[in-house]
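During the no-cost extension, the postdoctoral fellow (Dr. R.K.) reprocessed legacy sequence entries with the updated structure-token encoder. One reprocessed record is reproduced below for audit purposes.
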Amino acid sequence: MLCDQCHERDAVLNLTQIVENAVTQLHLCEKCAAERGIETTVSMPKHPLGEFLQAVQQQALQVPGDAARCAYCGTSLRDFRASGRLGCAHCYGAFEQSLRDLLRRVHGSAQHVGRSYHVPNPALLERDTSLGALRAQLQKAIESEEFETAARLRDEIRTLELTAR
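Re-encoded structure tokens follow.
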């Protein structure tokens, strides 16, 4: 559609005016709209979150210590940030301070405060192991149709299970 004022260029702006209940529409090109004092370039309002994210990205690119490398496997801190994986067990020592900072930011603390591992009672481990072996023998006895052996194994399993309670 051509500009209603100059009839030379394509219209990029549709101007609707309402004066005393009379509606008029003008289709204007950029130049004619500028002559009337109408701004045609749409300026996007800056969003504070976008500025913040851009600043964080720039800061991440300029982190000191990115040149540090693991002496064992050669993985750099920049490689870790790109992949999210360390190269070997020695990387934990090489990048200790950076990892502590990362843990502090992600979890709120660099010290473990969750559940701790308790070594199970050796007697319980032995009982569970023997129960597993007896169940495997029972399954074999049933498959080979040795019902007397299967009944004896079943009774042994029940005895072990009852003593556990």
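The first strand starts at residue 13 and ends at 19. The chain has three domains: 1-40, 65-110, 123-164. The remaining legacy entries will be reprocessed before the final report is submitted.
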